[in-house]
């Protein structure tokens, strides 16, 4: 199967090629619990996570700088469109922050340098014999791999169950993304490039940073990917049954009960 911009997000592509977002669905990140059953339901188009306004604002800014924003608008579902646009097609009151985020990015010449690479470059390759795909927001050939991230806050930490308070770079397991992108790019080009986040916050007084991920952190994350990816492939092939996390919206919605549970279990 050949991967193009047109079929990159299709069900067929998802069944053949792993991606970082799919891996996260199965395995989880500190910011949310992974669920194998939900991940398979999403792959089969039996479950769609509800979009959020925060997610749509981030996507709007991302597409403005690194994609085709008009084509993106055409791809939106009705539910997604209502979260960010008015009936006239203008950004709604809660989504207006996207405009100020964009202006903040434009105001920094140094930040903009990192967004002037080739946009949405598709990466294809194998990690330990398993097919992977990825998309680079801004590829500065021979210089850097850059991912644009619109986040709640760059410096403030949020609580993640089981982990404590973490800043966004750790809560989102973004070293995993950098590790996969760097590895696939090495396969395609024959040389390594450093991985950066061009990060901007949505908070009042938008913070900006260019964040370099050390190779030691990326190497550790790649090892974790290699350790866990075979189980995902086995689940996708039907060799083993996916586990239910029992806590996510999908598990609550599809839960079937057949007997009482003990007071002490609750």
Architecture overview:
- It contains 12 helices and 9 strands.
- With 266 residues, the protein is α+β, with helices and mostly antiparallel strands.
- The chain has one domain (11-254): Lambda Exonuclease, Chain A, CATH 3.90.320.
- The strands form 3 sheets. Strands 3-4-5-8-9 form a 5-stranded mixed sheet, sandwiched between helices.
- The longest helix is centred in the last third of the chain and has 23 residues, at 215-237.
- α2 (20-27) crosses α3 (36-43), α4 runs parallel beside α7 (97-106) and α10 crosses α11.
- It is globular, with a radius of gyration of 19 Å.
- Helix content is 43%, strand content 20%.
Provide the fold topology:
Elements: H1 11-16, H2 20-27, E1 28-29, E2 32-33, H3 36-43, H4 53-66, H5 69-75, H6 78-84, H7 97-106, H8 109-113, E3 118-127, E4 130-140, E5 144-151, E6 158-160, E7 164-166, H9 168-171, H10 174-189, E8 195-201, E9 208-213, H11 215-237, H12 249-254
Parallel strand pairs: 5-8
Antiparallel strand pairs: 1-2, 3-4, 4-5, 6-7, 8-9
Category from helices, strands and their pairing: alpha+beta
The ordered H/E elements are HHEEHHHHHHEEEEEHHEEHH
Distance between the termini: 47 Å
- Please give the radius of gyration in angstroms: 19 Å
Question: Would you give the CATH topology?
Answer: Lambda Exonuclease, Chain A
Q: Give the uncertain stretches in residue-range form.
A: none
CATH class: Alpha Beta
Q: Helix share of residues?
A: 40-55%
| Beta-strand residue percentage | 15-25%
| Largest sheet: number of strands, sense, barrel closure | 5 strands, mixed
Overall mean pLDDT stands at: 95
CATH architecture designation = Alpha-Beta Complex
**Structural shape:** globular
Number of domains: 1
Quantity of strands, as a count: 9
Strand order of the largest sheet: 3-4-5-8-9
């Amino acid at each position: 199967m050949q991967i193009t911009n047109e079929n990159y997000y299709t069900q067929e592509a998802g069944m053949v090629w792993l991606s970082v977002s799919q891996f996260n669905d199965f395995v989880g990140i500190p910011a949310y619990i992974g669920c194998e059953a939900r991940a398979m339901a999403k792959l089969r188009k039996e479950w769609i996570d509800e979009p959020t306004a925060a997610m749509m604002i981030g996507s709007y800014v991302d597409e403005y700088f690194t994609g085709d924003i008009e084509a993106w608008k055409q791809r939106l579902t009705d539910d997604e469109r209502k979260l960010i646009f008015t009936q006239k097609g203008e950004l709604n009151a809660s989504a207006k922050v996207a405009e100020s985020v964009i202006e903040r990015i434009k105001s920094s010449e140094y930040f903009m340098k990192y967004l002037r690479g080739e946009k949405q470059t598709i990466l294809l390759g194998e990690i330990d014999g398993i097919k992977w795909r990825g998309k680079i927001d801004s590829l500065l050939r021979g210089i850097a791999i850059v991912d644009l991230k619109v986040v709640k806050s760059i410096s403030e930490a949020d609580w993640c169950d089981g982990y404590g308070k973490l800043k966004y770079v750790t809560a989102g397991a973004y070293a995993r993304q950098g590790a996969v992108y760097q590895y696939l790019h090495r396969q395609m080009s024959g040389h390594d490039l450093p991985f950066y986040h061009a990060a901007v916050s949505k908070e009042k007084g938008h913070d900006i940073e260019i964040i370099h991920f050390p190779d030691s952190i990326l190497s550790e994350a790649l090892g974790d990917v290699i350790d866990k990816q075979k189980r995902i492939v086995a689940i996708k092939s039907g060799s083993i049954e996916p586990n239910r996390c029992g806590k996510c919206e999908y598990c609550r919605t599809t839960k079937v009960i057949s007997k009482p549970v003990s007071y002490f279990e609750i």
